[in-house]
């Protein structure tokens, strides 16, 4: 089988991670998975979450510019609420990134990861998590430099990728065309130890068999290993 | 290991599926997984979805009575919006149930599955899917009796269960205590062929290893087989 | 004249008051006036109202499950606001129940009565007040047992019933068919001394004469006496 | 007993009904019950209600200027929703005025009565109904002049007044001081035949006995007779 | 050239400024520019703005009664939000009036100027600023009388007028007909020294040349001088 | 006088206009005025405005990424509404760009200009208009290529700049530091004939005299001439 893009089933799109993309945020990363471009900023605020006495918080918000997509979608600020899809994605990003942070080491502090899609071509949530991690690291390093925190709250590395079955073949990192035509797809978030943080598989058209699920998890594991290498190169560690 | 409830790791809570619980809806099912009680009604409306030219639609809405939980939560109608959690759950229920329906066989028709939690003790979304399926079948049978549709749109059976790792042990069908203290948990939706419709695994505290994931999927497969038997008994098929 | 249901003009529907219907709330009552079923829970919170320096508060919220009615109505949480009807009803329930409570004896405490209609067949607001009273008593008794309050804030008994003129005849406790076809109707809330707490009579079709109003109030007085007996039996007092 | 204002128990405040107060509306009436001033406009639109196939509709909206009251209240347009009180009042005004209109004689037409309180001193809803009736008549006469309707839809006269028990004495037309200190109060809407359209009695402090209710209805009947005379004088009929 | 109204190009409409129009507000002014009628109230509240540590605040809100205009417009409280136009106008009024107040001399105090249009015939925002100034002065004098403030925060006089080019001729104080047909128009806010506080010129149809802009500013200067005289007469200073 | 940035009073910041910045929109322009970066996309939709029978429409929406600014601001989509400032700006952008378009030549078509601020350093609205114009031209050219329109609707060139008085000196193109400390500022929109489309001058601190206003307009005229040259170079015309 050949993919329209010419990629092999286990091949990622070209990944680009550009730090310090804008100047105000403590962490600011433009992440590109092929034509998908997401601007991830990490903002530090000296206030803890209202509903939590001790420790700090890491949270995420997600948005798409109205014309990030093929046809213009309504601006959520104008329609007066965030869609269910938006909320689902930003909850996923927040949970995923919290999995590598010791919240008790952020007393009275909140880090917000804003992930805004400038251009969409499939996989925006996985790009957001992968780029958001780099912005988070930059923000934590800035907090350490400003002596806002005493010990390093970071205890792992997080990246995410999508996998799916397209025309019967399991493939890695679906672009928009593959995503809209696929039989089932899965978003996988992992840490540097190869363990799973989130697994979200969905089949509307074609239910997937156990061995298909296994193949998809194998592909995801491969892809995430590459993404983590790209994150480390971007961070220079 | 022993569970506080006395159940074995692979033991479901007592499952009860009561049809015709209220009188107006085409399908009305009270489903109980132990102390979790969800009222699922299926309502037929003779209007297709606005954004879709042909065929019909199956959708779901989810709600919790304010005092279904240990402490009262704010009524979503009063606060003016559905939370991200609510939207995430109702999108999951809708996608899961659409997986067993041929939407083209429902021209100009919409079936809405309302899942309202009367009492919560963990696993409300999986109970909602499992009970919602039975309400959906009743509504489809009612539509056939009223000659609203020509052919049977139903082409499968759907049920759902939660699994998770509690104190190091993979267990089936977590109750509230287990759920709030677990290291990671997963909601699994399957069809009657043992294939996966949805897999949603989350680890905030403890990332799960591949073999743990495999054990959890095995447990879920067992549990869903039992739930499907209970669905068939309730439906008398 | 005969009513479709076979009831005499002054006959209530079968009344059922079931306490401890769900397990979390301090008071939880399922009240049925015939096919009208309302779940009333009373929740105690250790916070006073923000706008009131001393004493506590008793308030009510009202909701209908979307398919409690003949045709599905839109979920208020999804449409983003409570209808005027909902607000009118919950304000009525709150005012009515506050009429039997000494708020000064609830310092720093709020009791919320949630009335959720599982099945509607006319008279949901009067059922809600009648059942809500029982839930309120249970909650107050629980507060006394937990030593949250020093003296008994309860100083009366409250129940409510609807009356109306159907095809020229004054009748008690209208069901949905009678209610939608009636010439005028009235909701009456009374205390155990036979005094009026609320009287709300409405005539869109046929204005009512003074002697009709008098007959309706007589009928209501009879009906409420029976309801109070049912409340006392349920409470075992 | 003497009232602070010097009025006798059965004495109305000075009533003023000024037609053509603003120039754009088909009916525009400033109604004053003492210091309570409400601007009532009736607007004719050539569209029927969306939810009703035949005939027309008469509806009402109610608002208070933020500083109509002793202390400034939040502007409802700014807070983003109408309060429960506002909705309750505008529903009451609409129902009351529809009671004198044959909606079938208004095919494809909607009349909206806007009642905006410029200055509040108790009794705003009863002033709104009483003045709204006059604006409604003017609008109907304008529709007849413009040949929008074939037959006269008006079949009665409507006015409203408040009554209540203040320091043990039943009194008519409560001003703000009396209203905020009264033991119970009632709003009564009647037609020209002395029949009741709406009766809304409320007792938070002191439940009212049957004979008190009777006295209040007697007072209301007297007051409404006077108001109707004032309406007829204003209309020159 | 002659204006439909018979006015000369540099002639204002009849201006009327009536103080103490309603009784509760610290300042209450009905201002009329011809048929445009705006009720401006100034309300003093003993709370400072939440986002500002020291000093006080002066702010404005703007609204139109639904039938202030030729055809009824939707009530903003009912549609659930203020339009962009409304927000733009109330921000303009607030900024303009703050230009003559020393906010540091209002510690812990907020003055809200509510401008509600009873009848609209063009120029509502300039009438609101001109009348709002008089209400503000009255409120400040009331605060001084009540010893709420130590020194006089007022340091100037503010008025506003519209100018525009109608059929090629620059004219002063456009009414609705002129405004809706004009080629470009400008709202000008000035102080008593003839300096500019706000200049807002807009050309959708016909861009204006520099010399036209100069002529419009000359006209505005003339008009504002007259309005300031009217303000002083109303205030008796 | 010297500006902190080293610029002379009449010197613009470095202007950069980059076309085809994202791939989906008919026009997509990144415009930079120094550190201010705004992404302007023009989207063509084949639907006319609902409220207008003939011709088409050009409209604009404006947004800021939450961390475009020094401190993070709340996401408008999350808070549920666009601020007054946002609405004021997007109305200004829309009006300004409509001034160079013949709407009758766009029958049944809508062009939406989305202006999203990636990084803010003062002057975002003037950058948005200047960049939005280029995106609009690209969209119109695309419509011509796709034969969506018969004749060229474009009849002018539009650009915008801010001017203000900083420490007593009139300066061109204020950056954030200058803007937040300035005595008064003005946004000026002009066309290629040097005529004014919009003039919006505001003085909260220091009212500006007529000769200051004249100097500011002179500066703006100079600046806009340069911006128009940059637009033409970017467009290659």
From TrEMBL, chains A, B, C, D, E, F:
One of its GO terms (biological process) is tRNA processing. Phosphate binds at residues 85, 123-125. The keyword Transferase applies. Its EC number is 2.7.7.56. Keywords: Nucleotidyltransferase, RNA-binding, rRNA processing, Transferase, tRNA processing, tRNA-binding. It catalyses: tRNA(n+1) + phosphate = tRNA(n) + a ribonucleoside 5'-diphosphate. It holds the Pfam family RNase_PH. Gene3D superfamilies: GHMP Kinase, N-terminal domain. It is an enzyme of class 2 (transferase). GO terms for molecular function: 3'-5'-RNA exonuclease activity; tRNA binding; tRNA nucleotidyltransferase activity. Residues 11-139, 157-220 form the Exoribonuclease phosphorolytic domain. Phosphorolytic 3'-5' exoribonuclease that plays an important role in tRNA 3'-end maturation. Removes nucleotide residues following the 3'-CCA terminus of tRNAs; can also add nucleotides to the ends of RNA molecules by using nucleoside diphosphates as substrates, but this may not be physiologically important. Probably plays a role in initiation of 16S rRNA degradation (leading to ribosome degradation) during starvation. Homohexameric ring arranged as a trimer of dimers. Belongs to the RNase PH family. This is Ribonuclease PH. The gene is rph.
